[in-house]
């Protein structure tokens, strides 16, 4: 049922990119900036097929020789839609974060469709206590044992207290709660990988809002999902749009994936001004209300680079067949091109609740109140415009495509290094332009130890290594040797 997965050029060896003079001029990068990620020769070509760097393996470089694990949902041919008898039980990991609170908004509006059986949260005990009072889960997990007394005090007087667990063990138990049918993974980073694996092994469908599950764990997670026969349903807006567009698409019918990007806070800034960026500037997203980290990712366009990798794993598309287009209005959330050149798009107001809702309800379509879910008004919407992304302004794109083609543990290192670099930027320990420099240097170092078919332990090891190495680069100041202009 899935689209045929294509071979992934996961390459190893201490080799370097060879960047043509034209590519250097277009991207305004120096040769030292493009460290070896995949052992490939990077060339920018005027291909009609794609406007993105075409990467070819150099002679003598060893490739994985293995196919990408079968993607799900692929064609996404649903069985006959059956209305569920009673509310669907869900577990929610990351209940006090942005994805978590929006998920609970959906549950609150649709109590006949969903019920919460387990919650996992971090340190926001006040909000977690309120969620427990409203949704009455039977199991709750908190990050630190020191939070338990405060949570119990906040729940004093509650008729029936949930079981409270702590740390990684607690999150895993929330993920595999015996009553849950679907697990919503709203936790950030590789912290979401172990509970997601536990949920898959327990036969739970995954409402995927945790990018690292596939970006870092794809080579391990996808075969596991196939083995246990579970469904991985994308909950972010771009992949949900693609998922919706390919419903019923015949096998081999997909020609190209087109990811739309808002362009972030600096869409209209000249490149020369980026050296003056402050944290407050990077957090002014023009369209979406999101957390601090993802808002910075949107400014650098690293969020889109990571989404390219995630789309590769979710839908089995080759990197040459995944493009990025800047769409300032954020009305079209992404598009697919079919083999006969038709382009299918999913449109809606910028509201993360819709993709989360569809992930939870699929294959059903749940009617929504027009008061809380405004319908798209084409007259209010106005014009839709599109722009080619500027590689000089967004060097993270070339870096992400290269890491994706390298495969194995490189994509997890890319994501972890980015997470650490953004954290350092938000702490004002590095400048805005330092973010991509740090990621590039960390990925370049990792080529020495890249693992093509990693275990879960290796994925988690290199996630931690990437964060530590990125921090060390800042402490030593050595990352300043590479300058992106």
Automatic annotation (TrEMBL):
Cellular compartment(s): Plastid, Chloroplast
Cofactor needs: Mg(2+); Mn(2+)
1-deoxy-D-xylulose 5-phosphate reductoisomerase N-terminal domain segment(s): 90-218
Keyword Thylakoid: no
Recorded GO CC terms: chloroplast
Pathway info: Isoprenoid biosynthesis; isopentenyl diphosphate biosynthesis via DXP pathway; isopentenyl diphosphate from 1-deoxy-D-xylulose 5-phosphate: step 1/6
Keywords (A to Z) from UniProt: Chloroplast, Isoprene biosynthesis, Manganese, Metal-binding, NADP, Oxidoreductase, Plastid, Transit peptide
Reactions this protein catalyses: 2-C-methyl-D-erythritol 4-phosphate + NADP(+) = 1-deoxy-D-xylulose 5-phosphate + NADPH + H(+)
EC number: 1.1.1.267
Protein family membership: Belongs to the DXR family.
PANTHER family: 1-DEOXY-D-XYLULOSE 5-PHOSPHATE REDUCTOISOMERASE, 1-DEOXY-D-XYLULOSE 5-PHOSPHATE REDUCTOISOMERASE, CHLOROPLASTIC
Name of the protein this chain belongs to: 1-deoxy-D-xylulose-5-phosphate reductoisomerase
Gene: LOC112276996
């Amino acid at each position: 049922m899935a689209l045929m997965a294509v071979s992934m050029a996961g390459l190893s060896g201490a080799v370097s990119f060879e960047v043509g003079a034209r590519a250097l001029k277009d991207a305004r990068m120096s040769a030292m900036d493009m460290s070896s990620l995949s052992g490939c020769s990077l060339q920018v070509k005027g291909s009609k097929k794609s406007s993105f760097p075409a990467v070819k393996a150099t002679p003598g470089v060893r490739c994985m020789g293995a196919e990408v694990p079968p993607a799900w949902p692929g064609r996404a041919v649903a069985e006959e839609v059956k209305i569920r008898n009673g509310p669907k039980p869900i577990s929610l990991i990351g209940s006090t974060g942005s994805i978590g609170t929006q998920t609970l908004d959906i549950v609150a509006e649709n109590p006949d469709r969903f019920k919460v059986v387990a919650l996992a949260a971090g340190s926001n005990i006040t909000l977690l206590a309120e969620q427990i009072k409203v949704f009455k889960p039977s199991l709750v997990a908190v990050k630190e044992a020191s939070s338990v007394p405060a949570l119990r005090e906040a729940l004093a007087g509650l008729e029936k207290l949930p079981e409270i667990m702590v740390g990684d063990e607690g999150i895993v138990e929330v993920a595999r709660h015996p009553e849950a049918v679907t697990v919503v993974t709203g936790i950030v980073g590789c912290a979401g990988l172990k509970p997601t694996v536990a949920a898959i092994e327990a036969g739970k469908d995954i409402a995927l809002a945790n990018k690292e599950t596939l970006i870092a764990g794809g080579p391990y997670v996808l075969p596991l999902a196939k083995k246990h026969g579970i469904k991985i349903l994308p909950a972010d807006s771009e992949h949900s749009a693609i998922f919706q567009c390919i419903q019923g698409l015949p096998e081999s019918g997909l020609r190209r994936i087109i990811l739309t990007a808002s362009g972030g806070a600096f869409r209209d800034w000249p490149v020369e001004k980026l050296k003056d960026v402050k944290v407050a500037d990077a957090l002014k997203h023009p369209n979406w209300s999101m957390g601090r980290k993802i808002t910075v990712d949107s400014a650098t366009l690293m969020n889109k680079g990571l989404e390219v990798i995630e789309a590769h794993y979710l839908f089995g598309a080759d990197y040459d067949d995944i493009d990025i287009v800047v769409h300032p209005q954020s009305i079209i959330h992404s598009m697919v091109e079919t083999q006969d050149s038709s382009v299918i798009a999913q449109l809606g107001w910028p509201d993360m609740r819709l993709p989360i809702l569809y992930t939870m309800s699929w294959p059903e379509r749940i009617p929504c109140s027009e008061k809380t879910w405004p319908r798209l008004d084409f007259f209010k919407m106005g014009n839709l415009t599109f722009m080619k992304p500027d590689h000089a302004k967004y060097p993270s794109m070339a870096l992400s495509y290269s890491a994706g083609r390298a495969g194995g543990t490189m994509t997890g290192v890319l994501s972890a290094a980015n997470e650490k670099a953004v954290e350092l930027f938000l702490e004002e320990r590095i400048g805005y332009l330092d973010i991509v420099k740090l990621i590039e240097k960390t990925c370049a170092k990792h080529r020495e130890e890249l693992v093509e078919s990693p275990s879960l332990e290796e994925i988690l090891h290199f996630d931690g290594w990437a964060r530590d190495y990125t921090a060390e680069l800042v402490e030593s100041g050595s990352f300043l040797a590479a300058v992106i202009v």
